[in-house]
Design a protein that fits this description.
By secondary structure, the protein is an alpha+beta fold. It contains twelve helices and four strands; from the N terminus they run H-H-E-H-E-H-H-E-H-E-H-H-H-H-H-H.
């Protein structure tokens, strides 16, 4: 059994070594398909990070009436901090808000002069809310509208950001659907490319298969060398593609942060190295093996 298995491995390697042109085409196809799949995955990651980037720049503030006790504001702050999806709630007292406003207005002499003449603080206490996603803002606004704390609130800036938030929600949903569609097209296109390449590879070995069939070789003994051949060119092609991808991402690492500060494709690859590579390589091997079985069964009538 072991000797038979070793012979299958040897014949598989001989197939790869003997037909150099076909083997080169197979390796090149695997490289091309690997780049297609990686482009789809990194494209999905890029657009997802772009949505997150815009979402992180969204917030809305709750401005309270002058006569509201801070104990009530603190209570609402605690409630919102425990609200699902909220990443942070910052309380800005009116004196701090006034101080910040004075610092920011130093460049404008008219406003700075007017502020020095004001004896009372015209600003009010307010909360700044940050959420992990756009949907959370909708839920928070709905909660505040129905809560008893509404009586303490002068106004909230959510209405000003509402259209932007809704657009981001709509965009994020559309983008995810589009990217999933593109990934599906990439996989279908990859299947067709690999299938045609495997077909050419098997036809190049048609006489070899017929000889094995004539001498009474079993189906698995005939299929075995082709499967070994597939493993060889799939691993070689994928390793070449992965090496070029890692080199490219390392050389362009500083460039991506200019486009989006939180977009780090090289870090994303390394953090998910085992999961992504095993998944992509598994897809490529599955397509190659499946195509080989179909081609052998249908065209060589094994």
């Amino acid at each position: 059994m072991i000797n038979k298995f070793l012979k299958i491995i040897k014949h598989g390697y001989d197939l790869f070594e003997r037909e150099k042109i076909v083997s080169t085409i197979n390796v090149g196809t695997t490289i091309l398909v690997s780049f297609f799949i990686w482009s789809g995955i990194l494209g999905f990651y890029f657009l997802n990070q772009l949505i997150i980037y815009f979402q992180e720049r969204l917030d809305f503030s709750i401005y309270f009436k002058n006569n509201v006790e801070r104990e009530n504001i603190v209570q609402l702050k605690k409630i919102l901090e425990n609200f699902p999806g909220v990443s942070g709630v910052e309380f800005i007292p009116q004196e701090v808000a006034f101080k910040k406003f004075k610092e920011e207005s130093k460049s404008n002499p008219v406003i700075a002069k007017a502020l020095t003449e004001i004896r009372t603080n015209p600003l009010v206490d307010y909360l700044i809310i940050k959420a992990n996603d756009s949907e959370t803002y909708l839920k928070i606004a709905d909660y505040i509208e129905k809560s008893p704390y509404k009586a303490f609130i002068e106004y909230i800036t959510y209405s000003e950001n509402q259209n932007i938030i809704k657009r981001i929600i709509s965009l994020s949903n559309q983008v995810r659907i589009i990217i999933l569609g593109i990934l599906a097209i990439i996989l279908i296109f990859s299947c067709l490319i690999i299938f045609n390449t495997v077909l050419v590879s098997i036809y190049a070995q048609k006489e070899y298969v017929e000889v094995l069939r004539l001498i009474g070789a079993g189906n698995w003994f005939i299929r075995g060398p082709f499967l070994i051949n597939i493993l060889i060119f799939s691993f070689i092609g994928y390793l070449i593609a992965l090496s070029f991808l890692i080199l490219f991402l390392m050389k362009t690492e500083n460039f991506w942060s200019i486009i989006i500060p939180n977009f780090q494709p090289s870090k994303y690859l390394m953090d998910n190295f085992l999961f992504l590579n095993s998944g992509i390589l598994g897809i490529i091997l599955f397509i190659n093996i499946f195509s080989t079985f179909i081609a052998l069964q249908k065209y060589l009538r094994i």
